[in-house]
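[recover] target loaded
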C-alpha cells in the first residue's frame, strides 16, 4: 500500500486489518494499529481466503477511507477432503506452488473434491509433455489442454465462478498425456 497525504496533511501511520473469510465467523483482526511501513509479512493458512483492509491516518489524526483487497491462498497438492485415485504421484517441481506438484500420466486417473465455498481455480502447469484432462464442476464439463512448447508453472489451468458460497463438486480426470496440479484455490472455503 502507499499514500503520501490524507486531506492534504502528510501521513503519520497505517492501520492494517485482516479477516479470514474461510472461518465460521469472519471477524476483523488488527495486524498493526500504527505502522509507518508500507508492507508486512502475513502467515496465511493454506486454502484460506483473506480480506485485508488498510486505513491511513494523517498527522492531524484524520483517517482515510479504508482500502481493501481479497487474497485466496491455494491449498497445495492435497486439499482437505480431496481424493486422488491410483496413478498420481507427488514430485518436486522447482518454482511451483510450495515446490511440488501431483502428477499423473495414467489415463482415467482422477481427483474428486466436494467442498462448501465459492469459486474454484486449479493451479498447475503446462509443458511439452502436457496432456489433456476433463474437469467437471457441478455437472458442467470442460476439457483442458495442457500442452505448451515450454514449461509454465503456477498457472491457473481451470477456473469456475460461483456467485455465492454453496456445496460444490469437482472431478479432474486424465484423458491423455501428463497432468500436473500444484494446488486448488477456493474462495471462502468453509469445509
Amino acid at each position: 500500500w502507499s499514500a503520501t497525504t490524507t486531506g492534504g496533511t502528510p501521513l503519520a501511520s497505517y492501520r492494517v486489518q485482516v479477516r479470514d473469510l474461510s472461518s465460521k465467523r469472519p471477524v476483523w483482526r488488527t495486524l498493526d494499529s500504527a505502522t509507518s511501513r508500507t508492507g508486512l509479512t502475513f502467515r496465511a493458512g493454506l486454502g484460506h481466503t483473506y480480506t485485508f483492509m488498510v486505513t491511513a491516518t494523517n498527522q492531524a489524526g484524520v483517517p482515510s477511507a479504508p482500502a481493501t483487497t481479497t487474497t485466496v491462498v491455494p491449498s497445495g497438492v492435497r486439499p482437505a477432503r480431496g481424493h486422488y485415485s491410483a496413478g498420481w504421484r507427488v514430485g518436486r517441481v522447482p518454482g511451483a506452488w510450495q515446490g511440488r506438484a501431483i502428477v499423473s500420466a495414467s489415463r482415467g486417473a482422477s481427483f474428486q473434491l466436494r467442498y462448501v465455498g465459492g469459486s474454484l481455480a486449479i493451479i498447475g502447469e503446462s509443458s511439452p509433455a502436457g496432456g489433456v484432462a476433463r474437469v467437471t464442476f457441478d455437472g458442467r464439463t470442460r476439457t483442458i489442454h495442457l500442452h505448451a512448447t515450454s514449461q509454465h508453472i503456477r498457472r491457473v489451468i481451470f477456473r469456475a465462478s460461483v456467485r455465492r458460497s454453496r456445496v460444490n463438486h469437482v472431478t479432474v480426470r486424465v484423458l491423455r498425456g501428463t497432468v500436473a496440479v500444484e494446488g486448488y484455490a477456493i474462495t471462502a472455503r468453509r469445509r
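[recover] notes: The first strand starts at residue 5 and ends at 6.
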